[in-house]
Each structure stands twice: as structure tokens, then as C-alpha cells.
């Protein structure tokens, strides 16, 4: 057991809840990109079978394994051809933002459900300690992870959605310059993920803000029951 706890990024007893969380979070995230791209006239994702909530077509096995072991990973990105959009820049922003916003929506829904269980006393009425622990652990991981994914994916560095949004927001001349340095931005992004001092001033504040969002919303919902 000690070996597996040291091998995985997350405690072995929490791993099933984390796997279920990313199964839902990644699937809904990529589906949202595909759905809106197809809705706006780009059939690329639909032709590849990506406009679906079937997690199999969205998961990248290596990306998920790396996420479990190292703490960062990825799903299969949804291909988008902005040339098919009637308004490429505006619709491109919406398609890119759809993924992070879907995680925000999941986090809000999950937090409301959990806080409602607490505020109504339903959670306190569960006598089975293992079931109570499972419910509490799942919602904590699910809600916090989705709040974090919402914030993390808005970082304006490739290959994240925040960078694609930035490309469509800035004037075309600046967008072309961004594409010229895109290959170096990816290295910067990787350095942020693997170097602890950089993590402490970039990723860690996002994680702390995600915690704040989760706790504050939960407190607000619980107060409604008093």
C-alpha cells in the first residue's frame, strides 16, 4: 500500500473518486468544445465522433496516466476549423470558452448538491460511516477539481483554452506574432508545471482560489437553509 501511495499523485483510497471526477470533467469539457463548434457550422468534430458524452472518444490514455502519476495531464483535444464559422473570431472565443465554462458549471452544480445535503441535514442523517466518507470525499474532489480546471484552462499559454481565446481577442497582427512564439510558450508552460518555485507563484494560487470559490459557494448555499 505504501508503494502505491508513493507511486500515484493521489492517495490510493481517493484515487477512484479522482478517476470518476476526471472521467466526467474531461468528457464534458471536450464535448462542450465539439458541440459548439458543430453548432456554429464546423462539422470537423462531429465527423470524428466527438459530439458525444462517451468518455472513450475523449480520453487520451497517456494523458490520464500522467495526470494520475505526475498531477498533470490532458484529454484528446477537439479539432476545430475556425474557417467554417460565420464569424470566426467571435465564435472561436465561444467554442474555446465552452470547455472551461463547462467545468465551472459542473463545479457549481456539484457544490450546490453537496451544500444542500449538508444544509438540509440529509448528510448528517447517514449512519453508514463509509458511505458518509465516500460522499464527502467525492464531492470535495469533484468540486475542487472542476473549479481548478476552470481557472487553469484560462491560462493564456498553449495548448490551453485561454491561449486560443487570447488569439481571437487580440488584433490579427498581434495574433500572428503570438503564433510565431507559440513553440516557446509551450516550453514555458511545461516549466511552470514541473518546477516547484514556478508552481508556487502560478499553479498554487489558482488552486487556492479554486478552494476559496468552493468554500464560499458552499457556505452561501448552506446559509440558505438556516
Largest β-sheet summary:
none
Helix content: over 70%
**Helix segment tally:** 11
Extract low-pLDDT stretches. 1-8
Task: Characterize the overall form.
Answer: globular
Oligomer: single chain
Give the number of DSSP strands.
0
Portion in strands = under 5%
Mean pLDDT: 88
N- and C-termini, Cα separation: 43 Å
Topology order in helix (H) and strand (E) letters: HHHHHHHHHHH
Q: Over the alpha carbons, how many angstroms does the gyration radius reach? A: 19 Å
**Structural class computed from helices and strand pairing:** mainly alpha
Topology:
Layout: H1 2-7, H2 15-39, H3 44-47, H4 61-70, H5 88-119, H6 129-152, H7 161-169, H8 172-180, H9 182-194, H10 196-201, H11 203-223
Helix pairs in contact: 2-5, 2-6, 5-6, 5-7, 5-11, 6-11, 7-8
Report on this structure.
α5 (88-119) crosses α7, α6 crosses α11 and α7 (161-169) runs antiparallel to α8. The protein is built from eleven helices and no strands. The chain is 70% helix and 0% strand. It is mainly alpha-helical and 226 residues long. The longest helix has 32 residues, at 88-119. The termini are far apart. The protein is globular.
Amino acid at each position: 500500500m505504501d508503494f502505491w501511495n508513493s507511486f500515484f499523485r493521489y492517495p490510493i483510497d481517493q484515487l477512484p473518486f479522482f478517476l470518476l471526477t476526471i472521467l466526467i470533467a474531461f468528457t464534458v469539457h471536450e464535448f462542450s468544445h465539439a458541440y459548439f463548434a458543430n453548432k456554429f457550422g464546423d462539422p470537423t468534430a462531429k465527423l470524428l465522433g466527438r459530439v458525444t458524452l462517451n468518455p472513450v472518444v475523449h480520453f487520451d490514455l497517456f494523458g490520464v496516466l500522467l495526470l494520475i502519476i505526475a498531477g498533470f495531464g490532458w484529454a484528446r483535444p477537439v479539432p476545430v476549423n475556425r474557417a467554417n464559422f460565420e464569424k470566426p473570431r467571435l465564435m472561436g472565443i465561444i467554442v474555446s470558452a465552452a470547455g472551461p465554462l463547462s467545468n465551472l458549471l459542473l463545479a457549481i452544480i456539484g457544490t450546490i448538491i453537496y451544500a444542500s445535503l449538508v444544509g438540509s441535514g440529509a448528510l448528517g442523517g447517514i449512519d453508514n460511516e463509509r458511505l458518509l466518507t465516500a460522499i464527502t470525499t467525492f464531492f470535495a474532489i469533484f468540486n475542487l477539481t472542476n473549479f481548478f480546471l476552470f481557472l487553469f484552462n484560462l491560462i493564456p499559454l498553449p495548448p490551453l483554452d485561454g491561449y486560443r481565446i487570447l488569439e481571437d481577442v487580440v488584433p490579427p497582427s498581434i495574433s500572428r506574432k503570438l503564433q510565431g512564439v507559440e513553440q516557446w510558450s509551450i516550453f514555458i508552460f511545461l516549466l511552470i508545471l514541473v518546477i516547484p518555485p514556478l508552481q508556487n507563484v502560478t499553479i498554487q494560487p489558482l488552486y487556492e482560489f479554486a478552494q476559496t470559490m468552493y468554500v464560499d459557494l458552499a457556505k452561501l448555499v448552506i446559509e440558505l437553509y438556516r
